[in-house]
Amino acid sequence: MAPTIIFIRHAEARHTLTELGFGTQCDVLAKHLENELPLAQEIELIVVSPMRRTLQTSQQALGWLMKKGVPVVLRAEFQENSAKPCDTGSPIPEMEKEWPQFDWSTVDPRYPATDGIYECSRKGLTQRGIAARNFLRNRPEKVIAVVSHAGFLRTSLCSRRFDNADYRIFNFGEEEEGEVARLVEWELTEKKGGGLGKSEKGTFELNEGDYAAEKPEPEEVVSENPS
After folding, report:
1. 8 A C-beta contact, residue 3 and residue 43
2. CB of 96 within 8 A of CB of 169?
3. What's the helix, strand, coil split of the chain in %, to 5?
4. What is the strand order of the sheet 4-9 is part of?
5. Single GO molecular-function term (predicted)?
6. SS3 124
């Protein structure tokens, strides 16, 4: 059976968490998850985007789970959805030195590449979303927490907006053979506007303003005077 997913957006940040994000926002989220959301006690895996602001949020808001032995997996698929400097990660060797408590062997060696499925294009965002959902759907755990970014969560995973340090809960919907894994939000968080009630309600699909224009295929040059 496919797992239940708790998607979490990182706290307020400017590359790294601000004082508000690192302190108040993460503290509120941690206390809420630990004391007011029984499902959080069943989390068996934490999946994290390998960027500083998501790593910080994970430690501050989910550290109580890590202390219980819940494993953390870093996955490049869950990084942010643009090639801007603020949304591009740092090389793995640099991050390994900075965050030695995490296992970096699970991160795609190409990270922080911005091409292929990591390209900020409709095709790239769509393919990365499929890869991320399939990764989650095929995991053996029953409940998984994912710490990612507002842009990628909305454009590629669940078509929902997330305020800083807010969360939403999803199950995988019924699908026919060969269909892309589809996520269905719990009424608990959908009607409230996120688990903390901070996020905008409604659905927000991937649109042209979310990615760079596709590069046109080069035209074939035909000589007027072939030899």
Report:
1. no
2. no
3. 40, 15, 45
4. 72-74, 45-48, 143-148, 4-9, 167-172, 183-185
5. phosphatase activity
6. helix
pLDDT digits (tens, 9 = 90+) for 1-38: 899 999 999 999 988 999 999 999 999 999 999 999 99
Location of structure tokens 């062997």: 105
**CA triplet 197, 186, 123: central angle to 5 degrees?**
95
Tokens linked to 43: 């989390």
- For 123, the token pair is 């095709």
pTM value is: 0.91
Q: How far is CA 83 from the centre of its chain?
A: 15
Residue 3 three-state SS:
coil
CB 112 within 8 A of CB 90: yes
DSSP 32-58: HHHHH-GGGGG--EEEE-SSHHHHHHH
The bridge status of strand 45-48 relative to strand 72-74 is parallel
The 10 Å Cβ neighbour count of residue 142 is 14
Instruction: Please name the residue that has the structure tokens 């090389």.
Output: 91
Question: Which pLDDT does position 179 carry in this prediction?
Answer: 66
Ramachandran angles phi, psi of 72, nearest 5°: -120, 130
